[in-house]
Write a structure and sequence with these properties.
Distance between the termini: 30 Å
Radius of gyration: 18 Å
Order of helices and strands: HEHHHEH
Number of strands: 2
Low-confidence stretches: none
Largest sheet: 2 strands, antiparallel
Helix content: 40-55%
Length: about 130
Amino acid sequence: MNTLKHTSIIKTEALRLGFDYCGISKAERLDEDARQLEKWLNKGLHGKMKYMENYFDLRVDPTKLVPDAKSVISLLYNYYNDDTSLDKIEPKISKYAFGKDYHIIIKEKLFRLLEFIQDEIGEVQGRVFVDS
């Protein structure tokens, strides 16, 4: 099977699993993004999210997370949840806090997509990440 066919079946399966978008790009260091991230961090725009200062090289180079990686599959998933409290007196809670943790839901879908890719294409090494 050729690369275009692989791309097509991966994108089709991602949409079938409920993802809103699927893009596939070359796994390489993101030099421009690295410069922007460094500026953002130096300006302190990450506020109290001190963890953003950790693992800089891993954030900007996917080949450091998965050695010998050739491609990165990036997905979008709208996790809008309309399950909200009807009591107007209770404190307001962000909508993403209602329902099952989206990290768990999306990670389950990512593992299913990885399994599909391995079944359809063959020996493929991969890792799944949510919010990375």
